[in-house]
Amino acid sequence: MSERDELPSAAAPKPLGRRSFLSAVGLAGAGVALGAFPAVAAPRRAAGFWAPEESVAHTRTWMAWPDRTSIWGSRLLPGVQANIALIARTIAKYEPVYLLANSRSAAKARSACGSTVQVISSIPVDDCWMRDTGPVFRVDGAGGLDAVGLNFNGWGNQQSHYYDARVAAGVAAYAGVGFTAAGFVGEPGAVETDGAGTLMATKSSLINANRNSGMSQSAIEAAMCAAYGASKVIWFPGIKGQDITDDHVDATSRFTGHAGAAVQYPLDSDTDIWAKDARGQYQILSQSADTHGHAIAVTRIQGPDYRRIRSTNPDFVSSYANYYVCNGAVIAAQFGDTAADTACKTTLARLYPGRVIEQLNIDSLAEGGGGIHCVTQQQPRP
């Protein structure tokens, strides 16, 4: 199938943010029919391979260039592209960045990102969410590297993903590493790993019929552990049906190394479902141990005051926790609440000593329901 400018109209969603998507179009949103997605391959875990924690040394960062007005709309797309270019250029100060772009927009991506970012036009994409569409790279501690794909299906067939469903395998092939399909459907943004055997995730994202119909929690958990080289999953209830991701964990809770984690914590005055979810995640993590029995030390990242940020969009996702750790730096967002932005920088500097903390204005991306972690995927050094 040749690269097309747009998918057929039946598969092209209205231009909506990820958080507002469901309330506007319902569960009959865009994407191929549930039954049309290829059968999930049986898990084939390579002996001794595991997905390391994000702060290990990287070979490169993978990103993708959005170019569809059918997804983003003509108003928001230019700003999102500018945000993607800013993130790519910033990361490229610290490590190589490989950015996937459709051939029709590769020249524009190169112009926006500059010469420090390598643009690749041989792997077509639907959108920019490389955290979810890209592969999970794994190491074996002896110089080996492979990749596993989580069978991306457009967050439960809620968005066009003909090309994005193939990105994980395409990236692995380009990187020259072996590729395995996981035994469950999901997105790497829905799973956090400490690199030492412990995962965390929301039930709303993965124990969900739009991803894993007919699979029990224990079966999904076993498939996750096989894919990541882990042995324990810490589950949060999450929030189902209120955003296109069904509440990805990486917008709220992150591992910061072995037996360490961070949770974006709301103001006392924040009482919506997202604030209650964050408080619940903090409580569960604070009472949890990792797979080795070590209590998890949880740090709060204070969320912003929504009355003081630049955006007034109710679907704006002001997630400090959706930061990205690269070689020598942490790439994070700032939203215009000066006190909270400064506090976030201080907290990240304490959690990641010796790294530069870069804070970027990514308001267009946040208006579309995502952040910096959502659009990046690390390739660790073997």
Under CATH, the homologous superfamily reads L-arginine/glycine Amidinotransferase, Chain A
SS-based class? alpha/beta
Provide the gyration radius in Å: 19 Å
Overall tally of domains: 1
Strand count, sense and barrel status of the largest sheet are: 4 strands, mixed
Number of helices: 12
CATH level 3 topology: L-arginine/glycine Amidinotransferase, Chain A
Note the quaternary state here. Answer: single chain
CATH architecture label: 5-stranded Propeller
Number of strands: 16
Give the CATH class: Alpha Beta
Proportion of residues in β-strands? 15-25%
Poorly predicted segments:
1-17, 21-46
What's the end-to-end separation, in Å? 34 Å
Shape: globular
Mean pLDDT: 90
- Spell out the helices and strands N to C: HEHEHEHEEHHEEEHHHEEEHEEEHEHE
How do the strands line up in the largest sheet?
3-2-1-16
Comma- or semicolon-separated keywords:
single chain; 382 residues; alpha/beta; L-arginine/glycine Amidinotransferase, Chain A; 4-stranded mixed β-sheet; 16 strands; disordered N terminus
In short:
It comes from Amycolatopsis xylanica. The protein is α/β, with parallel strands linked by helices and 382 residues long.
Please explain how this structure is put together.
The chain has helices at residues 21-25, 69-91, 106-113, 130-133, 154-157, 167-175, 203-206, 209-212, 217-228, 273-286, 338-351, 363-367; strands at 58-64, 97-100, 117-120, 136-139, 145-149, 178-181, 191-193, 198-202, 232-236, 253-257, 260-265, 297-302, 324-326, 329-333, 356-360, 377-380. By secondary structure, the protein is an alpha/beta fold. The strands form 5 sheets. Strands 3-2-1-16 form a 4-stranded mixed β-sheet. It is globular, with a radius of gyration of 19 Å. The chain crosses the membrane at residues 21-41.
